[in-house]
Amino acid sequence: MKSQRILADFFRRSWPVYVLSITFHLVSNMINVFYPKVLGAFTDKLAGGELTRGLVVDYSLQLLAIGIASVVFSGIAMYLVMYVGRTFERGVRGLLFRHFTRMGERFYAKNGVGKLLSYFMNDVTAVRESIAMGINQTANATMLLLSAMTMMIISGIPLYLIGACVFPLLLIPFIVVYLGPIIRQRSLHVQEALGKMTETAEEQFGGIRVTKKFAVEPIMNRRFGQTVDDIRAAQLRLVRVSSFFQALVPFLGTIALIIALAFGGYLTIAGRLSLGNFVALTLYVRMLMTPLQQIGNVINSIQRSRASLERLNGLLSQSPDIVESDAATEADLSDCAIEIDHLTFAYSPSSEPVLKDVSVRIEPGATLGIIGRTGSGKTTLMKLLLRIYDPPPGTIRFGGEDVRELTLESLRGQIGYVPQDGFLFSTTIRENIAFSDRTAVMGSIEDAARQAQIHANIDELPERFETKLGERGLTLSGGQRQRTSLARGLIKRASVMILDDSVSAVDAVTEKDIIDSIRRERHNKTTIIIAHRISAIKHADEIIVLDDGEIVQRGTHRELLEQPGLYADLHAIQEEGSLHATGTSDS
Ligand SMILES: Nc1ncnc2c1ncn2[C@@H]1O[C@H](COP(=O)(O)OP(=O)(O)OP(=O)(O)O)[C@@H](O)[C@H]1O
Predict the structure, then answer these.
(1) Distance 377 CA to ligand 1 centre (A)
(2) What proportions of the chain, in percent to the nearest 5, are helix, strand and coil?
(3) Closest protein CA for atom 30 of ligand 1
(4) What is the number of the ligand 1 atom nearest to the C-alpha of 381?
(5) Could you report the per-residue pLDDT of 280-321, keeping only the tens digit for each?
């Protein structure tokens, strides 16, 4: 199992620190077990009337030395084990993040950000707690148990008495076998409920502006409240069984103590056990209580962390849906034709195709315009060009090479894709524009901003390009965000540029300025423009009209205007709109 591998890999790398930590614990415990022995000897001297002032000082100094040495060694051991735990946490979080970056859109469509965050926070922490404290506490507790037992034997306490005292402890494995799976199952429910809560919180915060505009805060509170209630219910179910388990283990220790008192006391009265050995026995049995409690805690936390490990395992075992072929070659899109050849695509085998028998050839340096009703498959076609989803083999080729045979980095690195709703990061405008090349000089950042017609707006901001955007760039208007995202695409000067409805949120005059500057800048460079407004695509070398996943018309702007069909209809509607608005036509 992969979860086991996470641990195995980790232990392989960090075992020396573990060994060191366990050794320090061992030393600390070995020192500790002399404590009852000194007290036993003290008692014997006291009972025999041999105790002198010098001996009292002697015994006190011995106890002080035992205390200091034990604290120093156990302190270092504790630090080391915390260090390993944090190293594990850091390693697994890195592993998870790398795994997430490899996953495709399908994965993110299924797993919300909040849910993924809960793996980072809750599950990793649960495993860390148990591997950090778990192993060391077990080792510590086992050593303490063994040393206490050894010391009992060395001290001359009869074996049958020791056997009778530790007998109740033999029940522990049976309790573990019975209660362990229940604890694990309930922990799994807790982790799932926590994941649900972070998922809901993330969604609710993401949609807070919509919520406020619709004044539906009470509904939002109710929904969130439900997830918190679910967590409490799941946690209480877990606490009920784990508290019972945790209390049961030391309870067995108490029974052992009672046996020691009763049986040991009887033997002492009968003169078969010295008073010193009786005191030592009760102290040793009392000493067993702490390790027993620790073992209870550890078993509890291991069961809980196994549930988290299973969740992490489930996540890490999912492989990315887009996999680079072993023989993948570097793409060179600088001067190549793009061929889409009888492409039919459905998002899942059971659903209807979103694209049906689409064939287009884009010559090197040409501009393709795509128009069509909403939901007609325009963005899907672009996602297939970028291989965000896998097209059927041989249906998309760049310079004759199947897109599936190209390395993803070289393919995506040479395509500048500007989506309609470009996500902006909560950093400066400069860093957002220079996203694909952090070393871009200010001159080219400003040029890209000018082409995207956002420069003037940026100039008005207090810190111009150094202005920090709020989360997701929400401090800008919709149109400003869109143009900043456009500048980010333009600065790439990519061999192939895709503008996916990227000027939909700007007014007609700004759109014209943007399209004009893109035409100048991308003269002789392959460009695909998707738009709902004809004005944005009418200069393209070829325009295709998509309707319900099919190309229903193709040609130049003039050719399409001459045919009856969707394009001419759209043109007529849009012309009418612009006539109403301005009293002029721009066709
Ligand atoms: N990830 C997805 N999983 C399943 N179906 C999807 C997915 N993305 C889009 N679709 C469906 O595919 C169809 C085409 O969507 P697409 O986004 O390609 O249309 P579009 O032409 O770009 O629309 P718009 O003009 O509104 O942006 C729609 O019916 C949509 O519901």
Answers:
(1) 6
(2) 65, 10, 25
(3) 375
(4) 18
(5) 888 888 877 777 777 777 777 787 788 888 888 888 888 888
Task: Decide if pLDDT at 374 tops 80.
Answer: yes
Mean pLDDT, residues 213-225 taken together: 79
Ligand 1 close to Cβ of residue 379 (< 6 A)? yes
Sign of CA dihedral 17, 23, 26, 28: negative
Q: How far apart are CA 488 and CA 163, in angstroms?
A: 76
Question: Could you tell me if the CB of 75 is within 6 A of ligand 1?
Answer: no
Q: How far apart are CA 305 and CA 77, in angstroms?
A: 22
d(C-alpha 133, C-alpha 141), whole Å: 11
**From the CA of 31, how far away is ligand 1's center (Å)?**
70
Instruction: Specify if 391 maps to a domain.
Output: yes
Total domain count for the chain? 2
Distance 348 CA to ligand 1 centre (A): 13
Whichever domain contains 579, its CATH number is 3.40.50.300
Identify whether 470 is part of a domain: no
52 shares its domain with 169: yes
Q: What is the mean pLDDT of residues 175-191?
A: 83
Question: Is there a contact between 303 and 187 (Cβ–Cβ < 8 Å)?
Answer: yes
Burial class of residue 201 in the structure, from the number of CB atoms within 10 Å of its CB (0-12 exposed, 13-18 middle, 19+ buried): middle
Average the pLDDT over 104-109 and give the result.
83
ipTM: 0.96
Is residue 228 domain-shared with residue 342, that is, in the same domain? no
| CA pair distance 292, 299, nearest whole angstrom | 11
* Domain limit, last residue, from 283, 316, 349: 316
Return the exposure string of 76-91: e unless at least 16 CB atoms fall within 10 Å of the residue's CB, then b.
bbbebbeebbebbbeb
Flag whether 456 is in a domain: no
Report which protein residue has its CA nearest ligand 1's atom 6: 347
Task: Let me know whether 275 and 400 are in one domain.
Answer: no
Q: Kindly state whether residues 408 and 288 are assigned to the same domain.
A: no
CB of 420 within 8 A of CB of 504? Answer: yes
Is 299 in the same domain as 405? no
pLDDT in tens, 448-478: 888 878 887 788 878 788 888 766 555 677 7
Quote the CA–CA distance of 113 and 94 in Å, as a whole number. Answer: 16
Based on the domain organization, do 348 and 312 belong to the same domain? no
Residue 4 pLDDT level (bands cut at 50, 70, 90): low
- C-beta of 350 in contact with ligand 1 (< 6 A): no
Task: Indicate if 158 and 302 belong to the same structural domain.
Answer: yes
Distance 375 CA to ligand 1 centre (A): 5
Which residue segment(s) compose the domain that 175 sits in?
A: 2-316
384 and 281 part of one domain = no
Ligand 1 atom closest to Cα of 549? 14
- Does 498 contact ligand 1 (Cβ within 6 A)? no
**Is the confidence at residue 586, as pLDDT, over 50?**
no
Taking the CA of residue 372 as reference, the ligand 1 atom at the shortest distance is: 21
Q: Is the CB–ligand 1 distance for residue 376 below 6 Å? A: yes
Look at ligand 1, atom 4, and give the residue with the nearest C-alpha: 347
Last residue of a domain, one of 258, 289, 316: 316
pTM over 0.95: no
Mean pLDDT of 27-54: 84
Ligand 1, residues 110, 378, 417: which to mutate, most atoms within 8 A of Cβ? 378
In a domain, 219, yes or no: yes
Which of 345, 347, 547 to mutate to test ligand 1, by most ligand atoms within 8 A of the CB atom?
Answer: 347
